[in-house]
Specification:
about 120 residues; 2,3-Dihydroxybiphenyl 1,2-Dioxygenase, domain 1; globular; 4-stranded mixed β-sheet; alpha/beta
C-alpha cells in the first residue's frame, strides 16, 4: 500500500545510563529532554513541535534496549557539522566517519558515549 506521508514517525536510541546520555546529547546538540517512564522503561524524550518538519524520538533505557554501532543509523541535522563533531569528541564520543560532502550536503558519523553510531547532516544551501 502506497503512503502519502513520510513513513518514519519516531525513533529510540538505546542507552545504558540515561543521565549520562542526556548530558552528552544536551552538550553536543543543546537538546532539552522530558523524562518519562513508559512501560517500565526510562525515556528521555527529544524536542518535538507539530509545526516543524521531521520526526523526533527518545533516549531509551530498559532491558530491551541495547546500544550498538551495528543497527539502524539515525541522522541528526546540524547547522555546523565541524562544531558538532568537536563537541561529540570532547565529551567522550569517537569520530567514525569524517565530514564528507555527499553531493546533497555534508555528512559525518560518530559513536556516542553509550556505544551507538550516530550520523550528522548539514545542508550546504
Amino acid at each position: 500500500m502506497a503512503t502519502k506521508s513520510n513513513p518514519v514517525v519516531y525513533f529510540e536510541i538505546p542507552v545504558n545510563d540515561i543521565d549520562r546520555a542526556i548530558k552528552f546529547y544536551k552538550t553536543v546538540f543543546n537538546f532539552d529532554f522530558d523524562k518519562e517512564n513508559i512501560d517500565g522503561n526510562e525515556m528521555a524524550l527529544l524536542p518535538f513541535a507539530n509545526e516543524n518538519s521531521g520526526i523526533s524520538g527518545a533516549l531509551a533505557k530498559g532491558d530491551i534496549y541495547k546500544p550498538t554501532k551495528d543497527g539502524v543509523l539515525i541522522y541528526f541535522k546540524t547547522a555546523n557539522i565541524d562544531e558538532t563533531l568537536k563537541l561529540a569528541a570532547k565529551n567522550g564520543g569517537q569520530i567514525l566517519y569524517p565530514k564528507t560532502d555527499n553531493g546533497i550536503g555534508l555528512v559525518a558519523e560518530f559513536e556516542d558515549i553509550e556505544g551507538n553510531r550516530i550520523a550528522l547532516f548539514q545542508s550546504v544551501k
